[in-house]
């Protein structure tokens, strides 16, 4: 096959074109956890799992939708995905209590109890997620012994909602205070919103831990933005 013909075949192949135009890391994902909020100010969202066999294959449901709790102030576009924001849609900053819209790899599972899950992070005394933008450890999980008591962070071993959860590989920016410590975690029954995470009943978090063990992508979007990613989402 000539180089010219090969180039034409590549350009016309719909799966290749689709994968190249979808946002990273969604383009190559085989598993997807879709979090859809009705509006930018919604405090709840629909969560559903999907799978596909290849980047050019259709997404197929792997579960029915369930309701999650999201930010007290709704949704704000992550700094890394601010190019997708339209006029009037907020950009997330630390402390705004908005869940960040965008696409992220789901990271390690974590929790209080021992687990046989791959790459499991057991939450032990002293484990802290730093949300202090003045610290070089911003948006990382470390220990109080390493960063000291003056650096602001979430003392994870003291947060009941963190008894089971998943890290989110959130691409933040310390200079822009672009948000930190984004998790999927257990929903407290009386909670009205989160500080920026996705919260679900514990059985649903456990199901997500199993689903994401071999790798998955989290998509968080307001419903009004779904058309901006035509061909990329279920």
Provide a descriptive summary of the structure in words.
The protein has 234 residues and is of the alpha/beta class. 14% of the residues lie in helices and 29% in strands. It is built from 4 helices and 14 strands. It has helices at residues 3-12, 14-21, 144-147, 202-211, and strands at 31-37, 44-51, 60-61, 66-69, 75-77, 99-111, 121-122, 127-130, 141-143, 153-155, 164-168, 183-186, 198-200, 217-222. The strands form 2 sheets. Strands 1, 2, 3, 4, 5, 6, 7, 11, 12, 13 and 14 form an 11-stranded mixed sheet that branches. Strands 9-8-10 form a 3-stranded antiparallel sheet. It is globular. The relative contact order is 0.22.
Topology, pairings included?
Elements: H1 3-12, H2 14-21, E1 31-37, E2 44-51, E3 60-61, E4 66-69, E5 75-77, E6 99-111, E7 121-122, E8 127-130, E9 141-143, H3 144-147, E10 153-155, E11 164-168, E12 183-186, E13 198-200, H4 202-211, E14 217-222
Parallel strand pairs: 1-14, 5-6, 6-7, 12-13
Antiparallel strand pairs: 1-2, 2-3, 2-4, 6-11, 6-14, 8-9, 8-10, 11-12
Task: Give the gist of this structure.
This protein is of the alpha/beta class. It has helices spanning 3-12, 14-21, 144-147, 202-211; strands spanning 31-37, 44-51, 60-61, 66-69, 75-77, 99-111, 121-122, 127-130, 141-143, 153-155, 164-168, 183-186, 198-200, 217-222.
